[in-house]
Amino acid sequence: MEINVYYNNLEPSDAIKKYVETKIGRIQKYFDTEISAQVTLSVEKLNHFVKVTLNAHGYIVHVEEKDANLYSAIDLVSDVLERKIKKYIEKLKSKKNKNNNKAKIVEERIYEAQSFEKEEKRVIKIKNYEIKPMDLDEAVMQMDLLGRDFLVFIDPATDLVNVIYKRHDGNFGLIEAKTK
């Protein structure tokens, strides 16, 4: 397992790096191929922040935790990361045994219109990322692994761009793009 450790406002040390590699490296047992992780350790005021971005089989898992003690923050992020991975491995196993039914995942297809105030809005940040073909279950899983509220993906059945998003009631919504 490849683990890159980055330090922000923190003095690098071999002991910390070895501890991170031990704690984060234990998730390799859940995968049969090589995976990579980027770990960022930082200090802000009295809190230590640990951010882990894991790339495994094309899925990206992102976990962040903070604590007053750096080693405790590393333990927390390691435990959360392991729980997330176990959860999605079980989900993938059960997915193979069930039918892929979009109606089970997305109960409603509601297009909510956003109302814009008269005040002019500006684009302050542009983010580019590659979208890839994936089915609805995969998109929900990837969105959850990233900890995001929405995900843009290509539906392989229709080759159209779709957006899956989390609703305030805890369910999911799906926007299917159609061409005229």
What is the topological layout?
Layout: E1 2-8, H1 14-25, E2 36-44, E3 47-56, E4 59-67, H2 70-97, H3 102-105, H4 136-146, E5 150-155, E6 160-166, E7 172-176
Parallel strand pairs: 1-2
Antiparallel strand pairs: 2-3, 3-4, 5-6, 6-7
What's the name of the CATH homologous superfamily of the largest domain? Ribosome hibernation promotion factor-like
Supply the CATH class of the largest domain.
Answer: Alpha Beta
Order of helices and strands: EHEEEHHHEEE
Give the class from helix and strand content and strand pairing.
alpha+beta
Short description:
With 180 residues, the protein is of the alpha+beta class. The protein is built from 4 helices and 7 strands.
What does this structure look like?
The strands form two sheets. This protein has a four-stranded mixed β-sheet. A three-stranded antiparallel β-sheet has the order 5-6-7, with helices on one face. It folds into two domains: 2-97, 2-Layer Sandwich (Double Stranded RNA Binding Domain), CATH 3.30.160.100; 104-112 and 123-176, 2-Layer Sandwich (SHC Adaptor Protein), CATH 3.30.505.50. The protein is α+β, with helices and mostly antiparallel strands and 180 residues long. Helix 1 (14-25) runs parallel beside helix 2. Strand 6 (160-166) and strand 7 (172-176) form a beta hairpin. The chain has helices at 14-25, 70-97, 102-105, 136-146, and strands spanning 2-8, 36-44, 47-56, 59-67, 150-155, 160-166, 172-176. The N and C termini lie far apart (47 Å).
